[in-house]
């Protein structure tokens, strides 16, 4: 086998491994973003239904570092009239 052919296979294998690692990294990032979205949605629903649920402190502890920059940038007040039954 010529040396150039072996060198080409080595380069191709390295490119393939790099591409696989990049695809895996993108996939993990997408899963992480999806998990954050679902946990945020769960926290929002729980805050409406039962704000004193036992899961709320756990969700707040997990999501607060991710949501704090958004809360600081969005200074809008979305408070409406109190809902009384």
Structural overview:
- The chain is an all-alpha fold and 85 residues long.
- It has one domain (3-73).
- It is built from two helices and no strands.
- Helix 1 (3-49) packs across helix 2 (55-73).
Describe the secondary structure blueprint for this structure.
Elements: H1 3-49, H2 55-73
Distance between the termini: 83 Å
Compute the number of strand runs. Answer: 0
Query: Mean pLDDT across all residues, rounded?
Result: 82
Low-confidence runs (pLDDT<50, min 5 residues)? Answer: none
Major sheet: none
Q: What sort of overall outline do the alpha carbons produce when their principal axes are compared?
A: elongated
**Structural class category:** mainly alpha
C-alpha Rg (nearest Å): 24 Å
Strand % is under 5%
Number of domains: 1
Write down the secondary-structure element order. Answer: HH
Please give the count of helices.
2
Q: Which range best describes the helical content: under 10%, 10-25%, 25-40%, 40-55%, 55-70% or over 70%?
A: over 70%
Which key terms come to mind for this protein?
mainly alpha, 0% strand, 85 residues, 2 helices
In summary, what is this structure?
The protein has 85 residues and is mostly helical. Helices cover 78% and strands 0% of the residues.
């Amino acid at each position: 086998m010529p040396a150039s052919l072996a060198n080409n296979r080595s380069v191709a294998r390295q490119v393939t491994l790099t591409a696989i690692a990049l695809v895996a990294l993108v996939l993990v990032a997408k899963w992480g973003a999806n998990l954050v979205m679902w946990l945020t949605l769960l926290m929002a629903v729980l805050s409406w239904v039962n704000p004193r649920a036992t899961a709320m402190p756990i969700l707040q502890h997990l999501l607060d570092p991710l949501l704090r920059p958004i809360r600081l940038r969005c200074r809008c007040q979305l408070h409406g009239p109190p809902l009384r039954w």
